[in-house]
Write a structure and sequence with these properties.
148 residues; four-stranded antiparallel β-sheet; five-stranded antiparallel β-sheet; minor pseudopilin epsh fold; 30% helix; 2 helices; alpha+beta
Length: 148
């Protein structure tokens, strides 16, 4: 018999490894960052468009109107002054498949003042049963999203 030798038995090491593997199998999936869903990506796209129109109004010092057609997803950004309207940009919203702008109006208009405040009720995105409402803060002009 060896005296003074201390250590762990093979059974003890196996039990410790088993416990560590169970803990790792439980914790690792919870630590993964979920990929954004289609509705979140669409909300980000719409928010970027709104922020771009707001930035244009602030930088140019003129009122800017963003008009979006909910059916075709086409948008136009226009400079609005007392007598003239000038197109600053146009394009189409690149929303993920299955996401739609849900609005009964033929066009959605957001008007940003030369100092940033905006006029818009809300913009609703739908993907199946899920919805996301994007509102523009009337005082500062920044878009805010919420879930329903």
């Amino acid at each position: 018999m060896l005296s003074g030798c201390h250590g762990f038995t093979l059974a003890e090491l196996v039990v410790v490894l088993l416990i560590l593997s169970v803990v790792a199998a439980t914790v690792v999936p919870a630590l993964r960052i979920a990929a954004p869903d289609a509705l979140s990506l669409a909300a980000t796209e719409v928010s970027r468009l709104l922020l771009g129109a707001e930035r244009t109004a602030l930088e140019a010092g003129v009122p800017v109107r963003l008009t979006v057609n909910p059916t075709t997803r086409a948008y136009v950004v226009e400079r609005v002054s007392d007598a003239t309207v000038g197109v600053l940009g146009a394009g189409s919203l690149d929303l993920p498949a299955g996401v739609e702008l849900s609005d009964q109006r033929p066009s959605i208009r957001v008007e940003f003042g030369r100092t940033g405040p905006a006029a818009l009720d809300s913009l609703v995105l739908r993907a199946g049963a899920a919805t996301r409402v994007i509102r523009v803060d009337a005082w500062i002009g920044s878009p805010m999203g919420d879930h329903q």
